[in-house]
Amino acid sequence: MATTAAPATAAATTEKRKPVFTKVDRLKPGTYGHTLTVKVVSSKTLTMHKGRSASQSLRRPRIAECLVGDETGTILFTARNEQVDIMKPDTTLILRNAKIDMFKGSMRLAVDKWGRVEVTEPAKFVVKEDNNLSLVEYELVNVDE
């Protein structure tokens, strides 16, 4: 029985999709796959105090709560581990494959292991700080049909 191999040119012609950049004010609860350009407004490192042994405390996850935004609004970003180091105020970042997590009824932006946080050239926009999406409280409502 003869088998045929796929042509080698098929893999060579596959091109990466151009990212579609979105704005902060377009973010909705439960969504993912966002690519955004944001500026860091502020960053606060959180300390984790869970009853862990001495050996586990060496690899304790580092978490920072950062306010990031663009010209349309701001949102809290949860930075984890090595992301914490680059979350300095006025740094411009590209967040790739970001997702919206819900925490106590409010939206938080996060980038997990499937995404990337990249420092880029300083952006020209001024962050609109009076539209913080993380201050909007959402409530899960069950709809009976």
Automatic annotation (TrEMBL):
Every Single-stranded DNA binding protein Ssb-like OB fold domain range: 27-119
InterPro entries: NA-bd_OB-fold (IPR012340), OB_Ssb-like (IPR048970)
Domain of life where this protein originates: Eukaryota
Entries under Pfam families matching the protein: OB_Ssb-like
Record protein name field: Single-stranded DNA binding protein Ssb-like OB fold domain-containing protein
Organism of origin: Davidia involucrata (Dove tree)
Lineage: Eukaryota, Viridiplantae, Streptophyta, Embryophyta, Tracheophyta
